Amino acid sequence: MIKGIYGDPGYKLLMHIIEHGYVAEELLTHDTGIKSNEGRKILQKMSEENIVIPGKLRTQEGVLHIWKLNPPALKNLLLQRLRKTREKLVLRLNFEEENILYECPQCGRRYTLDEAYANDYVCPVDDEILVEADKSKTVEVLKELISKVDNLIKRLERV
C-alpha cells in the first residue's frame, strides 16, 4: 500500500526508518540509494500526512537533520485508505449484483442493460452481438477482496 502512495523510493525510505529508527537527510543517498532531493520531497510529503516527524541528532561531526516514524499516524493513514478501498469495493459489488450487464465477446467491454438496449445489443466498438455477462466470478472476487480488506482492518485496529 505504501508503494502505491509514495512509490518504490517512498517504500524504501519507510523501511529504512522502520529498521533504523530514523533517516538522516544528509545520508539519504548513502543509506538508501535515493537521491537527496527526491528523498526530501518524499519525506516532506510524508511529513504533511504526519507519518514522519522531523528532528535533529547531534553527532561528533555536527547536527544531522533526521526524520522519525510516527506510528499512530501511519496506522491511521493505512486504516483510512483501507476503509476507502473497502467502500469502493462494496459499491462495485452492489453495482454488479443489482444490474443486468452485457459484454462483448470480442473486446470484453461491459454495458448496462440500458446501454446495451440503446446500442441494439451490438458493441459500438467492434459490431459484435452483446451477450449477458456472467457476473458470478466477479462477485466472488469482490467478496474475497472485501473479506481480505476487512481482515487487514481488524489486524491494524488491534495493533
Report on this model:
It is a single chain. It contains six helices and six strands, in the order H-E-H-H-E-E-H-E-E-H-E-H. The model has no long low-confidence stretch (mean pLDDT 92). The two termini are 17 Å apart. It is elongated, with a radius of gyration of 24 Å. The chain is α+β, with helices and mostly antiparallel strands and 159 residues long. Belongs to the TFE family. Pfam families: TFIIE_alpha (PF02002). It comes from Desulfurococcus amylolyticus DSM 16532.
Low-confidence stretches: none
Find the structural class using helix and strand composition. Answer: alpha+beta
Strand order across the largest sheet: 1-3-2
Percentage of residues assigned to helices: 55-70%
State the major sheet.
3 strands, antiparallel
| Number of DSSP-assigned strands | 6
> How far apart, in Å, are the first and last alpha carbons?
17 Å
Instruction: Give the amount of beta strand, in percent.
Output: 15-25%
How large, in whole angstroms, is the Cα Rg? 24 Å
The total number of structural domains is 2
**Shape type:** elongated
**How many separate helices?**
6
Give the SSE order as H and E letters.
HEHHEEHEEHEH
Considering the chains and any ligands shown, give keywords for the structure.
single chain, 159 residues, alpha+beta, 2 domains, 3-stranded antiparallel beta sheet, transcription
